[in-house]
Design brief:
This protein is of the alpha/beta class. It has two domains: 61 residues, Putative phosphatase, domain 2 (DNA polymerase, domain 1); 151 residues, Rossmann fold. It has a six-stranded parallel sheet. Strand 1, helix 6 and strand 2 form a beta-alpha-beta unit. Helix 1 crosses helix 4 and helix 3 packs across helix 4.
C-alpha cells in the first residue's frame, strides 16, 4: 500500500487506506486501472505498466532487508512440507514479486504449484485462480500417478472477503485470517473458520478442525 501510495502520488492520485482495502482481490493491473479511472485520468496500457514498474522497484527496496511476515506464517508453511499434504499457492501479483518473496522466505520450495495473475482471466472474487490451482495440482499429481483431489478436500487460507468468496465458489473449505480485515467481514462471506493468527495452527490442527467440521476426510491441499 505504501509503495502504491508513493507512486500514485506522482500522478496526482491520492490513495487512501479505505480505497486500498476496498480493492482487495484485484490483480495489480486491474487495481491501477481502477485508480486512474476513479480519478478520471487516462489508463492506457503504457501508463499502467509505468506505474507497475515503479511500484515493483520501490516495493523491492522496501522489503530488501526484511520481509514483513505476519506471525506464524513461515512456521506454518514449513510445517506443511510433509508427504501427507500437497501444497498449492495462489497469488494475484506478478511472478517477479512473488519469486522475490519466496527466495527471502526459504532456500527451498514451499509450493508445488503456483498460479499467477497472468494465468487467469478474472481476479477474485471470481473462482478462476483457485479452480486453475486445483487443475494444475491434479495435473502434477497425475504425472506422479497419484489420485486427483476434489475441491472439497482442499483448504484455502485467505485474509480477504474476495478470496474467501473465490475459494468457496470452487467448493473449497476456507480458513480466514484477520491479518487484513475484521472477523465479521470474513464470516459475512462464509469463511468456515476464522483465526487471528496462523501462529495458533499446525497441520494436525487443520486436519482435526476441518475433518470434524466436514464430517469426513482430511483437508488435502493448502492454498494461500
Amino acid at each position: 500500500m505504501n509503495a502504491y501510495k508513493e507512486v500514485l502520488k506522482e500522478h496526482e492520485i491520492d490513495l487512501t487506506k479505505e480505497l486500498y482495502f476496498g480493492a482487495l482481490g484485484m490483480d495489480d493491473k486491474t487495481f491501477v486501472k481502477s485508480m486512474f479511472d476513479r480519478a478520471n485520468k487516462g489508463s492506457e496500457a503504457s501508463v499502467v505498466n509505468k506505474v507497475l514498474e515503479a511500484k515493483t522497484k520501490l516495493h523491492r527496496t522496501m522489503i530488501e532487508d526484511e520481509l514483513p511476515l505476519c506471525p506464524g506464517v513461515l512456521t506454518f508453511l514449513k510445517g506443511c512440507l510433509t508427504p501427507f499434504l500437497a501444497r498449492a499457492g495462489e497469488h494475484g501479483k506478478p511472478r517477479m514479486r512473488l519469486d522475490t518473496c519466496l527466495s527471502v522466505l526459504t532456500s527451498g520450495p514451499l509450493f508445488s504449484v503456483l498460479v499467477m495473475a497472468g494465468d487467469v482471466s478474472a481476479c477474485k472474487p471470481a473462482p478462476d485462480c483457485y479452480r486453475r490451482g486445483l487443475e494444475k495440482l491434479n495435473e502434477k499429481r497425475q504425472s506422479e500417478r497419484s489420485l486427483p483431489l476434489m475441491a472439497s478436500e482442499c483448504l484455502a487460507i485467505e485474509d480477504s472477503p474476495p478470496g474467501i468468496e473465490s475459494a468457496r465458489a470452487v467448493g473449497m473449505r476456507t480458513l480466514g485470517v484477520t491479518n487484513t480485515v475484521s472477523e465479521d467481514a470474513l464470516r459475512a462471506v462464509g469463511a468456515d473458520v476464522v483465526t487471528k493468527s496462523l501462529a495458533d495452527w499446525t497441520t494436525d490442527a487443520v486436519r482435526h478442525v476441518f475433518s470434524c467440521n466436514a464430517g469426513a476426510g482430511t483437508a488435502g491441499v493448502l492454498a494461500c
